[in-house]
Design brief:
Elements: H1 2-23, H2 27-40, H3 45-52, H4 59-65, H5 74-82, E1 111-117, E2 127-133, H6 135-144, H7 147-155, H8 159-165, E3 167-174, E4 185-196, H9 206-217, H10 221-234, H11 236-251, H12 259-277, H13 281-296, H14 298-309, E5 313-321, E6 331-332, E7 335-338, E8 346-356, E9 362-372, E10 384-396, E11 407-417, E12 426-428, E13 431-433, E14 437-450, E15 455-464, E16 474-479, E17 481-484, H15 485-489
Antiparallel strand pairs: 1-2, 1-17, 2-3, 3-4, 4-5, 5-8, 6-7, 7-12, 8-9, 9-10, 10-11, 11-14, 12-13, 14-15, 15-16, 15-17
């Protein structure tokens, strides 16, 4: 009985799903719908012929299914890049000198740069310079010199190269040191995308953008005129022959044609036209005009962006944190602080997931652990330093004219220290103190973009019940600057 009920349940679930898939039309079908209705509304062949011999009527079909149409989509892709809120440009959230409680699921495709002030889990204010990059992607961009071509060429390579491209790195440097350390390296990190299809150039979204081109192309008279001009100037003989074939195809229809007869005839005429212009580079200028219109059309653009942003993200991050005596404060309210001279470095392992939440917002969840890279020769210090879990909601705000779309973020972290944070005991007034236990943070952050530049300015406010080294409540504000080169690289030339 249980098996039968389970089978019926699966069947009931499968039928609506299958129906929805069957009902979903391809970009080509959507592009042909308007023409089919126009032809169907005519009473005879003499009235049908002018519709199917007007090449401009087929522009939505051509721009939707042209084999290399993606190469003309830079304006629409750039509009998406400008609004992304899933990228981590600054230092990893698990690093020692970052002012972010959470690492986001995506990182810059090429490279990014950040200036950070503060350290969210520590009591010492730091000024770090952070550089993020991807070796494989940069190499492809330098060779192909085009935002879309560099992505397509790289992802046409073998699986080893594609997986290499999924790995990016970051390096952070201290801009100032105390007399206690001469090491300017603050740490480094590696980020690997396990599952991430947020890039607008990803083949997962080919059909999505094709549908957008079809919808937009049908409403652009300038695109229709441009297609006719290209045919008349570059393919005059082929264009004349095409019109004759289209005329003959329509006149061969029955006196009272059915819907299937009309669709077959219209599709044959459309495919015939596509065969003429499919290799024309000038038609890509028509595609680009449609892509520009998509970028400016709020509804079509936002529908495409929302679909991409619904895609989940799973990534992994490893951070090596270079600790020094400068990470400890010199004084507290309880007295002078003395830190050990020899301090082990840290390794943090962090799993990141990113999910669409509601109304364009994103939720990011981190879970990780930190271990000591080395252990002291004496003492009972364990290898595992801490466990941590953190989450963040990012809410896009309405666009501000000449500035862009700000983002408001709310994040929280719980970090449980199992051992002394520096691997050695810290002394206050020469008395050893324990700093293990739970630490809770809450952070609000407003990120202001500089439109069209790739620059963003995050301003954050953090409240903590304590920090790693000081068991005192702490409230602080921080400000930084980030630069994502992807936004500039994706700009139409």
């Amino acid at each position: 009985m249980f098996v039968q009920r389970a089978a019926w349940f699966l069947l009931l679930c499968a039928v609506p799903a299958a129906y929805g898939q069957a009902a979903q039309k391809s970009p080509a079908d959507l592009a042909l719908d308007k023409l089919v209705l126009q032809v169907k509304a005519q009473s005879d062949a003499d009235h049908r012929v002018p519709i199917v011999t007007n090449a401009g009527n087929f522009v939505s079909y051509v721009v939707a299914v042209k084999p290399d149409a993606k190469l003309g989509m830079t304006p629409a892709f750039h509009a998406y890049e400008e609004q992304r809120i899933d990228k981590q440009v600054s230092e990893a959230g698990s690093a020692g000198g970052t002012d972010s409680a959470v690492s986001k699921g995506s990182v810059p495709w090429l490279f990014g740069f950040a200036l950070e002030h503060g350290a969210v889990t520590q009591s010492v204010e730091k000024n770090n310079i952070v550089f993020r990059g991807n070796v494989a992607n940069v190499a492809s961009a330098l060779k192909n010199k085009d935002y879309i071509q560099s992505y397509l060429k790289l992802h046409s390579e073998n699986a080893l190269i594609r997986n290499t491209a999924a790995v990016s790195f970051s390096v952070s440097f201290r801009t100032s040191q105390s007399d206690q350390t001469k090491n300017t390296l603050a740490g480094y990190a590696f980020h690997y995308d396990i599952y991430n299809h947020r890039d607008p150039r990803d083949k997962h979204w080919d059909s999505l953008w094709a549908v957008a081109r079809s919808k937009m192309g049908a409403s652009l008279p300038n695109a229709s005129g441009a297609l006719r001009d290209i045919l008349e100037s570059d393919f005059p003989t082929e264009f004349a022959n095409w019109k004759q074939r289209a005329d003959a195809t329509v006149r061969a229809l029955p006196a009272t044609p059915g819907d299937g007869d009309i669709r077959s005839a219209v599709k044959a005429i459309a495919d015939d036209l596509l065969g003429i212009v499919s290799t024309s580079p000038k038609v890509l200028t028509v595609v680009e005009s449609v892509a520009t219109a998509i970028a400016e059309h709020e509804q079509i653009k936002n529908d495409a962006i929302a679909t991409i942003n619904h895609s989940p993200i799973v990534s992994f991050e490893y951070s090596d944190v270079q600790q020094s005596a400068a990470d400890a404060p010199t004084t507290t309210s309880a007295g002078a602080v003395t830190a050990p001279a020899s301090i082990p470095n840290l390794s943090n392992f962090n799993v990141i997931s990113g999910l669409y939440f509601v109304a364009g917002s994103q939720f990011t969840l981190n879970a990780g652990t930190t271990i000591f890279n080395s252990l002291p020769s004496v003492g009972k210090t364990g290898r595992v330093r801490d466990y941590r879990v953190s989450g963040q909601f990012d809410v896009p705000l309405p666009e501000i004219a000449n500035i862009g779309k700000p983002t408001l973020g709310f994040s929280g972290m719980y970090l449980h220290l199992l051992e002394e944070p520096l691997g050695e005991q810290v002394k206050v007034n020469d008395v050893a103190v324990s700093r293990t236990g739970g630490i809770a943070f809450f952070q609000s952050k407003l990120t202001l973009p500089v439109k069209g530049s790739g620059v963003k300015v995050p301003i954050s406010f953090t409240v903590a019940n304590r920090t790693e080294l000081i068991k005192e409540k702490e409230v602080r504000g921080t400000i930084g600057v980030t630069f994502d080169f992807d936004s500039l690289f994706s700009k139409p030339k």
